[in-house]
Amino acid sequence: MAKIGIFFGTDSGTTRMIAKKISKKPGDDVCDKPLNVNRISVATCCNLIP
Asked: What are residue 36's DSSP bridge partners?
């Protein structure tokens, strides 16, 4: 089964903290770790597409 992706953008870190809390609720087997779109590279984007 594919995992749920959580994407966020933050400058202060507050959104990162909330994204981590959200991803922990369903568990690691359901959600991937949150991804900060402010720090994403082209290579990372290409790896997200199956």
From this structure: 8
Residue type, 28: D
Its pTM stands at 0.68
Identity of the residue numbered 47: N
Measure the CA dihedral 43/11/9/30, to 10°: 90
Question: Is 14 strand, coil or helix?
Answer: helix
pLDDT tens, residue order, the chain (50 aa): 788 888 898 888 899 999 999 999 888 888 888 988 888 777 766 676 66
The answer for residues whose C-beta is within 8 angstroms of residue 36's C-beta and 6 or more apart is 8, 9, 10, 16
